Amino acid sequence: MSEIFQNPATSRLRRQRTLLLVYAVAVTAALAVSLYNNNNVEASMPSDESMAEIAPEEFEESFELDADLKESESPEILEETESDAPHLSELIATNAVGLNEDAITIAKGDTFIGILTKLGLDYSQTTDIYTVFKKVYDVRKLKVGQVLYVTYTTDNKYNQLTAVKKVMVEPVSGTRYIVEQNAEGKYESRVEQDDLKDEIQSLKGPIEGNLSSSMQNAGVPSNVVGNFINIFSFSVDFRRDVHAGDSFEVRFEQKKAPNGKVVKTGDIVYASLTLGKDKLELYRYKDKSGFVDYYDEKGLALKKTLDRKPLEFKKARISSRFGRRFHPILKTYRNHDGVDYAAPMGSKVYASGDGVVTLSKWVNGYGYMIKIRHNSEYTTGYAHLRSFAKGIRPGVRVKQGQVIAYVGSTGRSTGPHLHFEVVKNGKKVDPLKVKAATGENLKGAKLTAFKKMVADIKASENKELSLKAESTAGQI
Ligand SMILES: [Zn+2]
């Protein structure tokens, strides 16, 4: 990028000066034109009719989607530009010397054609630039606050614009859209793209108040915050499970322009939440076929849904479905608010999804029961248990597939079975209608590759820590 472009302040001043000049010249030109007309020399003047033919049509076609453009281009201005400019540029072209570069910040109501004609460019050249530019960049996409860089020549006698040499816009840092005059004076357009550097950005911090504002305060871009919350949303109820003193860590891909500016942020490669004494960690892994998912340290896939049959005994048959049924003990029709799986006494009961145990006790009718809150939406219940697995008590975080209890026949029960219920937003729903679990755990070569990746990430973290320790030592 040329140096002149980097000083918008001077460019703005220059622009103001140019506009004053344009105004002065326009007044002079208007006088000249009236003199010209009074002299009855009409040969080189375009007639009103021919102008009417060209101008409105061109504008309609180019800007049919942009109402602002049509409004801001009043016919008066057009006529003035049309009739004056050719004379001026013809007059001036022979002694063009000055080269100007303006950085024009798009203001409300500005249009591409409006900006160029204000600079003093004639209408046909303006539409020529517009048409050529359109091949790479649609100027209707220009937004208020964006900067349009215009390079143009002026004559030294009248200091009036003679030709626009180059127009450039950089809507995203590192990508420049350019229209430029070649040696033959023809306009050509192109896109310049800086080589972007891929980096992994690592940010962490304490959670104060809510998670997303804490992350944003730490400088995490909002799209990354959204993705972070998304990947944990299956296993964390952010409203209830996150407390003061908890913390987060995130590593994500980003692209940097040569000037050091971050141009794009990409996928999260590592996400971690420390909730109380639990540390939840997820790693992104992309296999050779391009399939991407998140896994825990052991290569177990992030489970996005509940297991409908949370039992070791996979052959367990359904002995009673969800809904209205004749109760075998109460001998009446009642609503069955879960699904019953007949299974051998003592077979393992799994957590249906990641979550926090909210209840593990004797409940009348249900016998020994466990409840797990998975996220802001889902809770699951497990009843008639013989006993609880070691360590299972309220407040304990469990993972999908973890053994939480053993099948029994406690409470109102006729034989060993698991009564399993799913509560969605406070309402009991049919567990068999919950979406089936997705995400396959990594195995074999994939698991080996994944473990190496995790080790690399951990090693880089340790390196960072030791570097930090060194730099701290240096300061002391
Ligand atoms: Zn039941």
Would you give an account of this structure?
By secondary structure, this protein is of the alpha+beta class. Helix content is 30%, strand content 33%. It is built from ten helices and 22 strands. A hairpin with a 2-residue loop joins strand 8 (262-275) and strand 9 (278-286). Helix 1 (8-38) packs across helix 4 (75-92), helix 5 (112-119) runs antiparallel to helix 6 (123-134) and helix 7 runs antiparallel to helix 8. The relative contact order is 0.07. Residues 1-96 and 472-476 have low confidence and may be disordered. Zinc ion is lined by residues 320, 336, 338, 340, 419.
Give a short overview.
The chain is of the alpha+beta class. Helix content is 30%, strand content 33%.
Residue share in helix? 25-40%
Question: What is the straight-line distance between the termini?
Answer: 42 Å
CATH architecture of the largest domain: Roll
Quote the beta fraction: 25-35%
